[in-house]
TrEMBL record:
It comes from the Bacteria. Belongs to the sigma-70 factor family. ECF subfamily. This is RNA polymerase sigma factor. Residues 125-172 form the RNA polymerase sigma factor 70 region 4 type domain. GO terms for biological process: DNA-templated transcription initiation. InterPro entries: RNA_pol_sigma-70-like, RNA_pol_sigma-70_dom, RNA_pol_sigma70_bacteroid, RNA_pol_sigma70_ECF_CS, RNA_pol_sigma70_r2, RNA_pol_sigma70_r4_t2, RNA_pol_sigma_r2, RNA_pol_sigma_r3/r4-like. Keywords: DNA-binding, Sigma factor, Transcription, Transcription regulation. GO terms for molecular function: DNA binding; sigma factor activity. Residues 27-93 form the RNA polymerase sigma-70 region domain. PROSITE patterns: SIGMA70_ECF. Gene3D superfamilies: 1.10.1740.10, Winged helix-like DNA-binding domain superfamily/Winged helix DNA-binding domain. SUPFAM superfamilies: Sigma2 domain of RNA polymerase sigma factors, Sigma3 and sigma4 domains of RNA polymerase sigma factors. It comes from Pedobacter alluvionis.
């Protein structure tokens, strides 16, 4: 797939925000093939992949005024595709046999993703998990787990007891683990979607 200069893409996005259909079509041509081919690899059904692809760009058009032109457009596409593929596999998982096949498939794909990509996406997933915590637990988790401070140091910084730090850290850690557990079936699938080379 031919790469496009960032300035050209930003211009297209600015025009898209104003309802320029030509700009929309150009962006579709730039990204649709990549999304479709990799979605087919994941869902194993061209009709489903085509439907997901169309839904991605329908949402792009409907939310065009909210697009942040200062951020990578591919990341925005990724987040939309992520939700749609997650919905697809959630529905498929209602059938236990299909659920087992999905888990096996995601595990196989996971093993073939380059480690640098995996770590990048895992870091983003961890940050999302931390951001989802209540404010105090987020502060405690960040100070203890990310910055490596002791319970005593954290207690002094936040003006709370060390036992409160301990209690809140346990709950925060459980929440982060639950977040990862809920996402583990999809992380390999979603990572490869926007990074695979055509």
């Amino acid at each position: 797939m031919r790469s496009f200069p960032l300035t050209d893409e930003k211009d297209l996005l600015l025009r898209l925000q104003k309802g320029d259909q030509y700009a929309f079509e150009q962006l579709y041509r730039m990204y649709s093939k990549r999304i479709f081919i990799n979605t087919v690899k994941l869902v194993k059904d061209e009709d489903e992949a085509q439907e997901i692809l169309q839904d991605v760009f329908i949402r792009i058009w409907n939310k065009r005024e909210n697009i942040d032109t200062e951020k990578p457009f591919s990341s925005y596409l990724f987040s939309i595709a992520q939700n749609l593929i997650r919905d697809f596999f959630r529905k498929a998982a209602l059938d236990r046999k299909m659920q087992a096949a999905v888990i096996a498939q995601s595990t196989e794909l996971y093993e073939h993703i380059e480690s640098s990509i995996y770590f990048k996406e895992s870091s983003a997933l961890l940050q999302n998990a931390i951001d989802a915590l209540p404010l105090q637990r987020k502060k405690i988790y960040t100070l203890c787990k990310v910055e490596g401070k002791s319970y005593k140091e954290v207690a002094e910084i936040l003006g709370i007891s060390a036992s409160t730090v301990d209690n809140q850290l346990v709950k925060a850690t459980q929440s982060v683990r639950s977040y990862f557990h809920a996402s583990k079936t999809y992380i390999a699938l979603l990572t490869i979607l926007m990074t695979a080379t055509i």
